[in-house]
Amino acid sequence: MNAKALKALNAFVCTCALLTALADRVTGTMPSPLLVASAGKAALIAPDGTAVWEQEKCGNIHRVWHKGEWVYWSNGDLYRTHIITKKTELVYKPAPKEGVYGFEILDNGNIVVAENANDLIVELSPDAKKKLVEIKVDPRNAKGVMPDLHHHMRMVRKTAAGTYLVACSISRFVREYDKTGKLVWEQETPALAFDCLRRANGNTLVSHLGAVTEYTPDHQVAWSFACTDAPELKLGNLCGLEERKNGNLVIGTYANGVEDGSRTTAFEVTRNKKIVWSYAAAGKRRSMMTAFLVPGWRWPIKWMPVTAADDAKMAELTAKAALVPAKQTRKALVVTRAYGYGHWEAMSYGDRALELAAQRGAFAVDFTNDVTVLANAAVLAKYDAVLLNNATGIAAKRFPGMCEALTAYVKAGHGLCLIHSAVDAFYDEPAIQEMNGGLFFGHPWGAGGTWSFRNEEPAHPLMAAFAQSGNPFKARDEIYMHASPPYARDRVRVLCSLDCNDEATRKSGERWMTLANVKDRFPLRADGDFAVSWVKAYGAGRVFYTSFGHDRGAFLDEARLGHVLAGLQYCLGDLAAPDAPRP
Fold it and tell me: Burial of 218 by CB count in 10 Å (0-12 exposed, 13-18 middle, 19+ buried)?
């Protein structure tokens, strides 16, 4: 190799090494997404380290919190941002400047804030319009010196006993007040006090930059974790505290991120000081003063990204899929939202498969997480079909006009394509259930099993994808049982159903009836009619449902992916297919 080529190779290797070093990374297993107050923004970090949601222009942000579908954040004033629409509202503005940095949203919706400028702890009603409690705080240090305004107070917490803990920042005190404003306890700290919380045992945890210390009511040190206890993390400036149910602590850091991602910005530690996971944000100096795990937060953030290999596989499959030419310009709206169980993998893979298929030119797709579009007739009118990708738990009555808008949209000649758990929704609207043709009634056939299926109409256009699969055929997926009503064979055209002549498939149903509380709540259908896919006419419109699509497997399988794409093209109005119930 000549000198010029060697120089080019070295440059390439160095560039690759830099890119690798600059990648945000999680070491260990982060069990759920992490909501953080980052550098000038609120962000949700996926368990793989990817920032999957961000609210920028947050200024000098100190605290984040989530409540329902809102992320609250403070930078002197208190704001909240809707997680789907990104609508941002001013919640509370104290006067004068240097206002709220620390706050807490209580379980009952009340908001507790610490007002630096006025030296007040205020508990507000959920709409922040009414002051329920107002307490005067003394932010002076042990010598009676008043600090600069910016450092009067940081985080504030309400205890189970109804008192209020506040970190008096640079004065190095945590002070506790009752609701009358009486000082009932205080604890001096070795360094700037940032966050504090009262444990169930009556002790108080305090973060003070170099360490987190647990103090007893009589000021003894019961436990501590210092930056030096985990030298491999290169920790500094420990700030935000969250105690998990198992006693572990999630801790955020102030300005500890560096360009190469070599310093930890948030982590979880056990009571015996073992690191469970650590997150290192790279590429910028990220300040994660607060960090909260958000397990079970039911909204469709794709923290299960499509791998490069799977993306290439789906590109290959969608390129081979038997799409029919569009009769006119077609556009589908894909709604991916979970209020109930989150099929995060299927949401991510399903959306990506549809995006790849759209590149073929037979149709276009728009994606949204905002289910309010289903109540907006003007928005729906822009699309030939709506596809609900695992959209669990939607309660139509929460959104005025949704039932009327969606049913009218389909009746008028549009399409509705329902993937897997899209029928695990609308329990409050029989009209939508009737339109859909089915309603979740348990899944005796779980995602871990391989089940047998009957192709009831091999000549049907929507079943063409299974031509090479045999009949019956087998697939690994989670299969639903449907309630009657709304499901009935004289109301839908069943294309595919479970083959209970297969031993494993039959025995799985039998096991279902041995499970506690199942046989009474979701008894196995006595008629043995377990429909998997169907079509139906609804007014002048078209409805397609398939139970396939619980996880990525359905979108990496040529037959099932082809089946979904054929169903969508039927709903769009391009793939003509019989949809009357069979005699």
Answer: exposed
